Amino acid sequence: xxxxxxxxxxxxxxxxxxxxxxxxxxxxxxxxxxxxxxxxxxxxxxxxxxxxxxxxxxxxxxxxxxxxxxxxxxxxxxxxxxxxxxxxxxxxxxxxxxxxxxxxxxxxxxxxxxxxxxxxxxxxxxxxxxxxxxxxxxxxxxxxxxxxxxxxxxxxxxxxxxxxxxxxxxxxxxxxxxxxxxxxxxxxxxxxxxxxxxxxxxxxxxxxxxxxxxxxxxxxxxxxxxxxxxxxxxxxxxxxxxxxxxxxxxxxxxxxxxxxxxxxxxxxxxxxxxxxxxxxxxxxxxxxxxxxxxxxxxxxxxxxxxxxxxxxxxxxxxxxxxxxxxxxxxxxx
Amino acid sequence: xxxxxxxxxxxxxxxxxxxxxxxxxxxxxxxxxxxxxxxxxxxxxxxxxxxxxxxxxxxxxxxxxxxxxxxxxxxxxxxxxxxxxxxxxxxxxxxxxxxxxxxxxxxxxxxxxxxxxxxxxxxxxxxxxxxxxxxxxxxxxxx
Lengths: 333, 143
What we know:
heterodimer, A: alpha/beta, Nucleotidyltransferase, domain 5, 5-stranded mixed sheet, 11 helices, 20% strand, B: Rossmann fold, 7-stranded mixed sheet, 20% helix, 27% strand, globular
């Protein structure tokens, strides 16, 4: 089966051609046109600018994906596009483009949940996944734990009650004057900092559930920063390192707790924040200790792209193009 | 009216108390720096209005609409303008359609970024960090 994936939920315009043969996944092409440089001066994604740039980029990006994959429209079996969650003005561009192409080329169309894209990014590794499996999805807009009893049985067992993990990285970066995107900026600075310099809270670590909270951690950084008489570069690095350690500890401990509770045999780490090296290393080690296998896709598949959308499209059923609608608050239940 | 709360719990309780006075159609502008307690106050109001889902930060998707169960208020709309550049962007996502609806309460964080589009009858709430740990000074004024 050959799937064309389309993704425009936030600040990346992406298209990919994915081939699935005897249960193995082959990325024939994955084109991502990033808008990070466009949004950097504003300290975050500006929805109107994002939508305008998606319109400019979408057709060239799809064209490039087909050319690079050496696939003609006739060779495509289905089109998968992200219908949510995301920015409504951005989502609409991908949804409308997919609808037109599906109608024009007479292809089935799959409405794909962006979060399921992250979830199924693990399948692109072609490694054996044993069930029950647990997936931590961490990104700028989401922090969720999904339990899988099979490749298509998904259940959300925990989520953030306030800010997403990636959002707290962005906001702490803003407080420290590090700019956007905040995740890479914090990680870079944290390398030269002392992670034990400041004692930040590990919110909800001992609560008897699998939910997260990051708003209080953000506020703790703010308090600590406001109390310091002078903030030099080293202090900033120490703040960044201590914050990153606290966020990592919470994500790792909660995931391990859930993995033990549900006796998970495979633990997966996906989403934009899965690009964070410290999180990859520390969660990997912790999963090793409980004798489960650990899967984390390469960084270019953790950040937004369309290969993961095509992968999720493989596991879903087509819907009539007339019924395809963008839903900014789409969830995994 | 100036309130001083000593913890996030108290800020939520204040929001809950405030919600009992709402009739529907109100639009609030919540101002204050990152960590000032804007979302915490919204959580309290949502609790009072009988919103069942947890209120999570709307920063990423800009606007979240929740179903409220305390009549006559049926909807709570939580908007975050933190990342917006101007009023047009808020209009583009259809937010103004919720302003002043009799069955809806709208709460807007970072309203200064979208001044042009806000209704005249907006209720301003300013949140500030207090001197003590976890203390917040919350100022309600009508205009």
